[in-house]
Here is the input.
Amino acid sequence: MKTEMKDRIRSRRVQLDITQQALAKRLGVSRVSVTKWESGTTKPDGENLHQLATALQTSPEWILYGKGEERHDDTKVIPFLKAPTAVPIISAVQAGMWTDTYACSRLNDVISWTQTTANVSDEVFGLVVRGESMTNPHGLPSIPEGSIVIVEPHYGQLEDLYGKIVVAILDGSAEATVKKLVWDSPFSYLMPLNPAFKPLPIDGNCRIVGKVVQITQNI
Here is the structure.
């Protein structure tokens, strides 16, 4: 019996026990888009089609035409290749409240979406870097303005963050900032990578929002 594309998408998603919302988040699209694919109102195409095939562990040809195997042959899967995770990009103001409001956040609160292959939690978010304080004129690491940092809010112990790039909020500020957390006994600093900017001493006046696990840049 020949099936339609919309039926193949839905049946495969249900077979893999993936909700529409979870599939949408993985692909970086809205849940409404997935609903429209499964109702036949619209069809996935381009990059969405290829990402959908990966998420459903099948091929674009099977989704489009029902041809070929429904499942990938596991022997052909490249070891250790992790499927990308969709990451919402939010504003510096939203970053300070993200983990508190994430569960009830709305899609229209998100500026845009990106992806990461890093190991991250469901609360991961992206932040666009503003200003030149993290542009290192002497080489790497460097985070120029316009770069996107992938931020993991579940970072473990504070002591594990020293020497790492973090996102933090200083008392009296509503916006998060990206800096390197440095311990120079007995003091701690939020250190810019650009020496033209001064270190920010912290002493109970700072809240760490998360740890930067990846940096992406447009060339």
Notes: Helices lie at 5-15, 20-27, 31-39, 46-55, 60-65, 92-95, 98-101. The chain has two domains: 5-75, 85-216. The two ends are 49 Å apart (CA to CA).
